[in-house]
Amino acid sequence: MRFSGSGGLGWGDYWRNWSDIVQIEGLFRMLGQIWVGLRVLHQGEGRYYNSLPPISKAFGTLGFFTTVLVQIQILNPALLYLSYSDVFKNFQIWRLFTSFLFLGKFSINFGIRLLMIARYGVQLEKGTFEKRTADFLWMMIFGAISLLVLSAIPFLQTYFLGVPMVSMLLYVWSREYPNSQISMYGLVQLRSFYLPWAMLGLDVIFGSQILPGLLGILVGHLYYFFSVLYPLASGKNYLKTPMWVHKIVARFRIGVQGNAPVRPANTGPSAFRGRGYRLNQ
């Protein structure tokens, strides 16, 4: 076998072939690690996963697997980002939804965002929104619609809205639990009221753009003002959960909604399902 010359394989060819083999090996190693992780979840830590509230669990799970599929190049991020020209001209309606599922490339920031969902989103849904699954779902829907509208403004255009959604959850949590003490990597203690701003600063330090986090804080403040502050001052709630959201929760038996205005449907098992009740109002 010749290593150079006409008809032979040069060292560059062998190097490229070896590089391809290493990349393929790395891909299969990553898939193997994911498989082992899933088995562990199913056998042991799966109990923790199954105990998570439905909306936060669905958002975190979809965000995690979407990001993994993009990372291993099975899913093209160009098919996910928000593009209103593609939505209206090419009828790519899915972009209105998939733009919320990508949480960024594998990095420290990606891990922090998953932890935010697992800790603050879950605590919010289990605490403030306990037995109020429809209300929590409505908060997420309001946040998504608001972010889509803001992203249509040219100087606020954001292609991936998963990070702003996580920032919105963190802001609402910080307003509901303003006096909790938070340790930042064991170095700094601060009140949870300031946590969204501290995380915004860390995002910038770690190389992320500041606009997505600011949009999330803005939308979170809009929700908290119209759902909590304004009703307390005026007695009027313009963000009351619509009936159609209650019907979705009842139809698919998602979580629990105390004092629900509709009766849960008698359906079979479904993903992210919890128990539903109708209580006397």
In short:
The protein has 281 residues and is mostly helical. It has ten helices and two strands.
Outline the structure in words.
The protein is an all-alpha fold and 281 residues long. It has ten helices and two strands; from the N terminus they run αααααααββααα. The chain has helices at 11-51, 54-71, 84-89, 95-98, 108-126, 133-151, 162-176, 195-205, 211-234, 243-251; strands at 181-184, 188-191. The chain has a two-stranded antiparallel sheet with strand order 1-2. A hairpin with a 3-residue loop joins strand 1 (181-184) and strand 2. Helix 6 packs across helix 9. The radius of gyration is 23 Å and the shape is globular. The protein starts with 10 loop residues before the first helix and ends in a 30-residue tail after the last helix. Mean pLDDT is 81; it is low at 1-7, 11-20 and 267-281.
Characteristic key phrases:
281 residues, mainly alpha, 10 helices, globular, disordered C terminus
Describe the protein's topology.
Elements (H helix, E strand, L loop, with lengths): L10 H41 L2 H18 L12 H6 L5 H4 L9 H19 L6 H19 L10 H15 L4 E4 L3 E4 L3 H11 L5 H24 L8 H9 L30
